[in-house]
């Protein structure tokens, strides 16, 4: 695949990873959707694991596409850019992350908020 | 302002003066002493790497110069967290003496290089 | 908060003080560093004569450069020739002239004609050197100041992370709608923590570039009498003294071809980027050819030196392992490689650094202003004035530098290096003016200077269109990426600064209408 596509994919993988990690924190969950489910400890671990997998996939993608030197540097910088973008999303447009939070709740590992 | 408060202010002023003096000593130790200690230990390490480690001279210079930044950073941070200024001066002086001493000692062995 | 009283408190104290003392200097370094990412594009904008099309893949130095070199600099001890690249579509000839100092002339690689002296140092010879030496060349004072600032940056990064109590909890936190101090601190923490790898990497690599300058004692210890030997063994810089006997120069093109062949046989891709002729007409003269480093992060030290008379190979060099690490870190900082995504990410990282430092300074002055006014201390006022000077003030200086470049005539009474010096004077004098303005009108300094940035940036775009005909639509249509990019960035700068100024005035108006009118509140509007 062309280099730029690899970079874009890696960026979105990192963004997804950081979104999952942010949604493990109560303050951000409340900001995105106050009425969302509360994840169990197992659910939290699952989200963290998915996030880690996404980050490593992004790294592998970049290393494969652009070699050791460029790949590593690009990964570090794209990860920072993704984390920053996510923080700005949470600050100004938290509602954009609602679908992701709902998907996490649907996929299980939650405590019903009626309890 | 009552007499008690005035005495308190005088006391605080005196404490502030000695405090400022100690602070200056610490800053000089950290920035100047830290650099001197780093440079001294770095020179000695470079010589040791060549003499004992068999490293090429230019390689040793570059390796030690790069690692020197980490040592200086550590010394800077430590100088400001260590409680006693005198301990800071003491340890930095030890470092400088060891570094300079070793440097002079090893310089003779390097002459044939 | 004091040093030596607990680990976290000491780090907090250190972070505050180092930040206050070094903040403005670091802001200047980060700003000029961010601009230097695109220094060659700035060159194209400031030197319209070099806005040529894509260079031909092969150029003949013998035919295109040697005649000009022999004509312009027959007595110069060194000729440095830079081959054209997509970012710099011209041949560059550098030499030292006893009357004019260090001269750079451009040559059209298609026609071989000498381009009119553009009389500007542009990004590569003004903004970039400011970044690493502050143009303070007396006894390398500038280098040491920048080095100290870089060490300070490392201290600030580590102490900042240690002092940040809620690192994980507030990792993604940014609350722009809370009160000013909270939002500022959030922004400072965010740009500090999330972009930490970049900030640490860029500061460390910057120091590593000059590691031999910053630790002269180490070089002295191992090379007590012969620093030239260190340069030869470490970097491959071959040298031999002139013989006094004259000679003719052999074919540079043949040497280039030989160099290419040698590197290809060693499995090293890419051609040469630089040819340096030392003592060109002396029997002992030599030609150094360096391999391009656009395909990798590492700025390789692959250098071949040839005899100037016979073209025979005198010396080969490539970096040893540890020198290679130093060259990798150097390359990490210089970003001369061909990777536009990375280039833009570095630019964004540098600007994030500016936001980090600026928000820190604003936070500190905001939290101390009231107290210092009560106690009649100048600390907060001083730091605030310096922050404005190093922030919007420096941007204003940069923009007036660009405006002067467009307004000063090329064929007027001042040409060549003298014209470039004049541009430099405009930069420093306007910077001084912003400092005076910040000191005199502290209350409105931010707003007014941000508005000035907006106005000046738009003026730059208009002047480019008027004086060169390469206005934005024209450059976009003809694919002149450097010029279009520069104009677009200038417009983006204008937009964001005017928006920021508007926000500041709205906040002030809101504050005024909310609280009962007092002389104090009105003075701060």
Instruction: Name the chain pair with the biggest interface and residue counts per chain.
Output: B-C, 39 and 39 residues
**Structural domain tally of chain A:** 1
* Average pLDDT figure of chain A: 89
Percent of sequence in beta strands of chain B: under 5%
Element layout with pairings:
The complex is a heterotrimer of chains A (about 120), B (about 110) and C (about 525).
Chain A lengths: L2 H20 L3 H7 L5 E2 L1 H26 L1 H25 L5 H9 L3 E2 L4
Helix pairs in contact in A: 1-3, 1-4, 3-4
Chain B lengths: L2 H49 L5 H25 L3 H25 L4
Helix pairs in contact in B: 1-2, 1-3
Chain C lengths: L6 H30 L2 H8 L14 H4 L1 H7 L5 E5 L8 E7 L3 E7 L14 H12 L7 H23 L16 H14 L2 H14 L1 H4 L1 H7 L4 H9 L16 H14 L6 E7 L7 E6 L11 E5 L5 E5 L3 H14 L5 H35 L4 H29 L8 H25 L4 H24 L3 H6 L3 H34 L4 H5 L2
Antiparallel strand pairs in C: 1-2, 1-4, 2-3, 4-5, 5-6, 6-7
Features:
A: mainly alpha; 5 helices; B: about 110 residues; mainly alpha; elongated
Structural features, described:
Chain A is mainly alpha-helical and 115 residues long. Chain A has helices spanning 3-22, 26-32, 41-66, 68-92, 98-106, and strands at 38-39, 110-111. Helices cover 76% and strands 3% of the residues of chain A. Chain A starts with a helix and ends with a strand. The relative contact order of chain A is 0.21. Chain A is built from five helices and two strands, in the order ααβαααβ. Chain A has one domain (3-111). Chain B has helices spanning 3-51, 57-81, 85-109. Chain B starts with a helix and ends with a helix. Chain B is built from three helices and no strands. With 113 residues, chain B is mainly alpha-helical. Chain C has 525 residues and is of the alpha+beta class. Among the domains of chain C are: 48-117, no CATH class; 226-334, no CATH class. In chain C, 61% of the residues lie in helices and 8% in strands. Chain C is globular. Mean pLDDT of chain C is 92; it is low at 520-525. Classes of the chains: A mainly alpha (115), B mainly alpha (113), C alpha+beta (525). Chains in contact: A-C, B-C. The B-C interface holds B 19, 23, 26, 38-40, 42-44, 46-47, 50, 56-66, 68-69, 72-73, 76-77, 80-85, 103, 107, 110, 113 and C 2-5, 7, 10-11, 13-14, 151, 154-155, 158-159, 204, 207-208, 211-212, 214-215, 217-224, 230, 233-234, 320-323, 325-326, 329.
């Amino acid at each position: 695949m062309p280099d730029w596509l690899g970079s874009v994919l890696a960026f979105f993988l990192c963004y997804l990873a950081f979104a999952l990690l942010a949604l493990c924190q109560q303050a951000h969950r409340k900001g995105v959707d106050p009425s969302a489910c509360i994840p169990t400890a197992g659910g939290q671990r699952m989200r963290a694991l998915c996030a880690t997998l996404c980050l490593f996939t992004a790294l592998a993608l970049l290393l494969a596409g652009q070699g050791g030197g460029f790949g590593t540097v690009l990964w570090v910088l794209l990860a920072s850019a993704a984390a920053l973008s996510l923080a700005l999303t949470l600050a100004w447009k938290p509602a954009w992350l609602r679908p992701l939070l709902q998907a996490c709740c649907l996929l299980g590992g939650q405590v019903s908020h009626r309890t | 302002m009552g007499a008690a408060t005035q005495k308190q202010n005088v006391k605080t002023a005196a404490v502030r003066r000695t405090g400022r003096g100690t602070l200056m000593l610490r800053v000089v130790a950290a920035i100047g002493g830290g650099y001197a200690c780093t440079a001294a230990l770095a020179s000695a390490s470079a010589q040791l790497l060549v003499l004992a480690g068999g490293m090429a001279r230019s390689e040793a210079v570059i390796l030690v110069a790069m690692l020197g930044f980490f040592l200086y950073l550590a010394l800077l941070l430590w100088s400001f967290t260590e409680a006693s200024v005198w301990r800071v001066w003491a340890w930095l002086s030890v470092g400088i003496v060891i570094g300079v001493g070793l440097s002079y000692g090893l310089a003779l062995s390097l002459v044939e290089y | 908060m004091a040093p030596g009283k607990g680990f976290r408190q000491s780090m907090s104290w250190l972070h505050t003080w180092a930040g206050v003392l070094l903040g403005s200097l670091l802001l200047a370094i980060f700003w000029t560093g961010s601009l230097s990412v695109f220094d060659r594009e700035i060159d194209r904008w400031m030197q319209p004569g070099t806005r040529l099309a894509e260079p031909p893949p092969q150029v003949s130095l013998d035919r295109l450069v040697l005649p000009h070199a022999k004509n312009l600099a027959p007595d110069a001890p060194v000729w440095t020739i830079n081959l054209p690249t997509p970012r710099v579509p011209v041949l560059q000839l550098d030499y030292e002239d006893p009357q004019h100092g260090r001269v750079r002339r451009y040559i059209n690689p298609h026609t071989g004609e000498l381009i009119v002296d553009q009389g500007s140092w542009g990004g590569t010879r003004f903004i970039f050197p400011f970044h690493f030496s502050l143009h303070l060349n007396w006894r390398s004072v500038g280098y040491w100041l920048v080095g100290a600032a870089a060490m300070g940056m490392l201290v600030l990064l580590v102490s900042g992370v240690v002092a940040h109590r809620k690192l994980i909890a507030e990792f993604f936190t940014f609350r722009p709608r809370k009160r000013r101090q909270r939002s500022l601190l959030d922004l400072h923490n965010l740009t500090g923590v999330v972009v930490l790898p970049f900030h640490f990497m860029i500061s460390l690599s910057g120091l590593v570039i000059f590691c031999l300058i910053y630790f002269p004692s180490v070089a002295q210890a191992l090379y007590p009498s012969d620093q030239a030997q260190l340069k030869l063994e470490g970097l491959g810089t071959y040298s031999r003294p002139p013989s006094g006997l004259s000679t003719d120069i052999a074919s540079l093109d043949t040497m280039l071809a030989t160099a290419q062949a040698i590197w290809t046989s060693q499995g090293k891709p890419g051609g040469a980027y630089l040819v340096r002729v030392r003592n060109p007409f002396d029997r002992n003269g030599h030609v150094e050819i360096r391999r391009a480093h656009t395909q990798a992060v590492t700025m390789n030290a692959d250098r071949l030196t040839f005899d100037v008379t016979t073209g025979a190979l005198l010396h080969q060099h490539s970096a040893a392992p540890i020198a290679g690490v130093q060259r990798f870190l150097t390359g990490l900082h210089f970003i001369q490689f061909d990777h536009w995504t990375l280039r833009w990410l570095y630019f964004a990282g540098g600007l994030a650094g500016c936001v980090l430092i600026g928000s820190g300074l604003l936070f500190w002055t905001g939290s101390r202003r009231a107290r210092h006014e009560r106690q009649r201390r100048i600390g907060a006022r001083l730091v605030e004035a310096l922050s404005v000077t190093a922030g919007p003030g420096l941007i204003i200086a940069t923009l007036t530098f660009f405006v002067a470049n467009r307004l000063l005539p090329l064929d007027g009474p001042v040409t060549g290096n003298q014209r470039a010096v004049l541009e430099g004077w405009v930069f420093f004098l306007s910077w001084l003016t912003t400092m005076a303005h910040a000191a005199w009108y502290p209350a409105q300094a931010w707003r007014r200077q941000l508005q000035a940035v907006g106005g000046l940036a738009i003026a730059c775009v208009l002047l480019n269109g008027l004086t060169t005909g390469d206005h934005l639509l024209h450059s976009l249509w003809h694919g002149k990426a450097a010029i279009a990019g520069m104009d677009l960035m200038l417009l983006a700068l204008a937009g964001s600064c005017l928006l920021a100024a508007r926000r500041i005035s709205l906040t002030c108006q809101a504050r005024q209408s909310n609280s009962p009118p007092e002389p104090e509140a009105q003075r701060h509007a």
